[in-house]
Amino acid sequence: MKALTFPCVSDSSQSFVSFLSTKLLLGLEPEQILQLVKDLSELLNNQQKENLLEYLTTHMRLSHLESLRLTSRLHSTCIPLSDCYDFVKWLPPELVLRIFSYLPWDALIACSMVNRAWFRAARHPELYRRLCQLPEWCPPLLDKQLFPFSYAVDTEAVPSTGQSSDSIASLLINSRNASVDWFGIFQKRSRLRRNWLLGRHRMRRFTGHNEAVYCVAYDAHRIVSGSADATIRVWNVRTNANWSVQTLRGHSDAVRCLQLLPLDDDSGTSSTSTPSSPDCCSSPTSPTLLSIWQPPEALLISGSADTTIKLWRLSTTVKWSRIACTSTLQGHTDAVRCLQADQQKVLSGSYDCTVRMWDLKTSMLRCTFRGHTAGVICLTYDENLLYSGSLDNTVRVWCLSSEACLFTLYRSVLSSSSTQFWLTPVSSLHLDRLRGRLLIAHHDGIILTWPLPSHSQLVDAYAQAVNGERASFPWQPVAVYLTEHFDTSGVCSGTVVRCIDGDTWHIVCGSDDKTLKVWRADNDQLVNVLQGHEDGITCVLVTSSVLISGSYDKSVLLYDFDIT
């Protein structure tokens, strides 16, 4: 490499240059130094300029040289004073989509306000399709309630998020043909979340029961409530009427738990295969016909203090409605306190200290889970495990396939007195699948959390239960003492928490202080306290757009957050 020399410069000039580099340049900004170099280059001859250029180019990376070479060609057709350096305009659409796909939702909204080109890029359907399918923006079991049933059919034509990054071009082609308004879907979800945080809602009250309301169910067309007056009432939420449209009579004692499932037109069986709600409330299911006056047929499962479980078929048309009790499940020897079902089975808990599994199609008893020493008042389950809470202040974790009790969850207390365990029974359970935890509510207002076991922990617990010192029944579960508390700062000390439910965004509990506490599920912060009941709250059901609760005041309240 040739040295940068100045043949026409004398020794005194060399000293002057050294002075500039050590004294004067130290106080200059980079822009001022660049301007000084430009001014001094005017004093150089051609040979010196070539030496200077060679010196600069050897210290530049190849990408900068290529950019310098293409600059004149890239901007040859640019209009003076125009925004010709906007990469969104001259980059290929595939690359622009890739760049924007790394932005969060709030940054996309900001980008859409830059100019028209950025607006079109930031509103691309593929960006919002991916956002809607993220866990924090994809409420389970609720999208089909929020949007038309055709939404589920249309989304099958849209590529899944599991595709590789090399298929961006195919995503563009497919997304152009998609009829789903993904931005509108995301906009509605964003509005719902904002309304939840701000507490903006519209409240409706349904009255008609003669005694306390113990349980509620919901499927986007109707609310079903069970009461201590031994009746089940069906309310049409698509109309402004606050009175029941159907009354089911068949139980001889209080109705303590309900589950509402959709029916297939051909088979007459439920079309959902996963559990949808814990305790006495059932989560919404997708309708097959969005009609105000003719909701789809549904299967209603009810459990009562008369020890029976009944299956009801609900049918409604414009001119008539029909209710038929299709089957009665008998086997419990005490009041049925909780149940949960899917298309294949029904799980029920009773004051007889057992949990029973029934075949939904044949109405036959499959198996019985025994181990609790007091009544079972709440349960929930997933694909492999059953979780049951009891008045003996324990939660038992069962293997559904082998009926083995793998874990027994105890509440840690300061004293080892057994009476202290008895005074704080479990009142409700909520399975937070997204965050892998089980929330356990107690009568004294304490809510504990238990992280769901990993596969290796399940294998070890099963081996200990089956191959322990007492391999025969009863199984020997692993004892776990709970110490991790959920944030219950909004619950008054000693207040009885009777129900807890949640979705992907929120955790809600109802208590005897007549209020509903709403926490954010991602950070467990209390965001709202809802009022409206005149007595203690017995049951609660949470969806992404509505919250439904029943109370000792004989009424059902619907809090609708889907308002503009």
UniProtKB/TrEMBL annotation:
The keyword Repeat applies. It comes from the Eukaryota. GO terms for cellular component: transferase complex. Gene3D superfamilies: 1.20.1280.50, YVTN repeat-like/Quinoprotein amine dehydrogenase. WD repeats lie at residues 206-245, 293-316, 329-368, 369-408, 530-564. PANTHER family: F-BOX_WD REPEAT-CONTAINING PROTEIN 7, WD40 REPEAT PROTEIN. This is F-box and WD-40 domain protein 7. It comes from Clonorchis sinensis.
